[in-house]
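Hey,
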Amino acid sequence: MQRCLVILGRVEQAHGLLDMAAQVMARVGGARMDVLAAREPADGQPDRGVRDSQLQWADSLHTVFRQWKERAYGAGTWRPDQIEVNWLDPEITVDRIVSGYGKDADLLVLGFPDPRDSAQKQAATRAAIFDTGRPVLFVPPFWERPSGDHIFLAWKDTPGCRRAFTAARSFMGFAKSVTVVVPVGVTLPLDVLPGVSPTVRELPSTDNATQAGRTILDMAHAAQADMLVIGGYEHGALYNRLMGSVTDEILSQPDMPVLLQH
């Protein structure tokens, strides 16, 4: 992973997203970090209220970014000769976020979905997951710990899950423990984590997807995980619910970073 894109949302959560991206880039030997505050287009409305509000929001985030960058450099978090950091705050539509920035990144870093997000920011989250073809790392509000030391992966034999496991390999060389949970009676394929000898546990059988999501979270906490890896998959209610209810349940509990790929 050479390049990550951080998509900022709430001002109070910006430090956590930036710290996570900095840690990821340092850990995997990344070279570039783009930080995006995507201002919503005013659609030619004569009322400048929307545009002025978005400019104020972006300015507040830029202030946080400058403060964070000064602190990060001073604390030695960055390797200034090897990592490029860029600030971006264009007025831009969701499709241009995806085509202009998302598909050029190896990893997207976002805050967890929040019902208070605007329609554009909710659309940007969906597009990041489903349209970029890139792994997305969701960061809980106010997360202050390292991530990737104790990795917990939930296996389901789907293309998205295989891609998520492939993305997670970038973190495996630094992990102190790797645990994989599989459905009862399922054997983890040898090709999904080559060169890794994880602890494998069984997920109790249930027909309730929400309960399955809660059980995965409980097992991840019991393993003291600081990163949960899951695959997202499409079903009939895609745009009413982000993904299957297992993933919905996990993303509704923003208490550990979640690496997700569709």
